[in-house]
Amino acid sequence: MAELLYKTKGDKVIWTIVLFLSLVSLLAVYSATGSLAYRERGGHTEYYLLKQLFVLVMGLVIIYFAHRVNYTIYSRVAQIGFLVSIPLLMYTLAFGSNINEAARWIRLPLINLTFQTSDVAKLAIFMYVSRQLSRRQHLINDFKKGFLPIIIPVGIICILIMPANMSTALLLGASCMLLCFIGRVPVRFLASMVAAGVVMVAMLFLIASVTGLEMRTKTWQKRIDNFLHGDHTETPYQVQQANIAIAGGGILGKGPGNSTQRNFLPHAYSDYIYATIIEEYGMVGAFLILAAYMLLLLRCIRIYRRCPYAFGAFLAVGLSVTLVIQALTNMAVNVQLFPVTGVTLPMVSMGGSSVLFTSMAIGIILSVSRNVEEMEGKRAERERIEKVMANAENAAVA
Question: Could you give the 3-state DSSP secondary structure of residue 338?
């Protein structure tokens, strides 16, 4: 154990945040799934708790091994990951498992498990964009040679994700645009891509309405209409139950395991787990969760500023940005500041592939942090030796 702790490097604050969110996840998932497990698993109320514990432990193992790898290796993996993501997403659209009227999952035949291919694509595209930004800094003001090779792969991935999961595609595109902005891409280039994205989404709705093809456009339109124009009689059921849960939480909440809306709130263990947390732990608990993600972003910005190499810097800030944007979106949906999206809360919501790929992203961030600390440690040691030698020479002269 001592040797394992000795080999565990990287930003200690990020490690603490991961452990904190994992603990919150276990408590919230156990509370939100107790009655569900009792009904579906014949009284075995700990079933989903044990399942989530297993997934989180696997996630910590992935974080540990990912952070031990030199982050420069992920630059080579990025190209392979991007190329693999395209056929995976295409296969998902054609043959993926349909859950909630959307083909987002692939079922592995031998072990009978499902995973979201968009999770693979998100991780791969951020590594790929970080690689391209670091390699094309000298061409970044050239639209054809500098910007298009970066943004075209992003567009391909977002277009393939959009038919089944528009919210994920839009968040992914926004996160990549923000990373490009951090990477010194001219604002006029980014503005042109935003305009192109708006036109593409409008065309998608137009094609669906003209041809009658079912591309989930009706679902998206209904969610937006309910958010913008709905009154208390038209508010979606899950939003009503989330509002009741939040109102019942107050300042300090009802206490762990005392949620009542978990029995009525759809997906209280995934999409609406933040509302469950607020009901049980109140505004104090809600603030602690928000503060944890904000602190994660600040620590990653610190890594970005300290990293001497562009790829590592872009990798750390890019992966952290997408995790925090996803978290803020989930929390905004739960408190009715954003239309219903189906986006989960990273490292907290119950899940399988989402937790594992989030863990991989955090492991990569910690890999960058570990290498930065090692370089700074070597530099400090070299400066110490030089100072000692200089003092010895001065003493000899004296």
Answer: coil
Query: 97 has which bridge partners?
Result: 105
pLDDT at residue number 389? 81
- Distance in angstroms (rounded) separating the CA atoms of residues 56 and 116: 17
Backbone dihedral angles phi then psi of residue 132, each to the nearest 5 degrees: -65, -40
Strands 113-116 and 102-108: antiparallel
In sequence order, the 6+-apart residues with CB closer than 8 A to the CB of 57 are none
Which residue positions in the chain have pLDDT lower than 50?
A: none
- Check if the beta carbon of residue 316 is closer than 8 Å to that of residue 300: yes
**Which residues, in sequence order, are bridge partners of residue 284?**
none
Residue 269: burial class (beta carbons within 10 Å; 0-12, 13-18, 19+): buried
90-105 pLDDT tens trace: 888 877 666 555 556 6
Q: Are 314 and 130 in contact (CB under 8 A)?
A: yes
CA dihedral 10, 12, 16, 17 (to 10 degrees): -70
Structure-token pair, residue 86: 């395209």
- Bridge partners of 107, per DSSP, are 114
Rg value, the chain, Cα = 23
Give the type of residue at 60.
Answer: L
Report residue 59 CA to chain centroid gap.
14
Residues 6+ apart with CB under 8 A from 156: 86
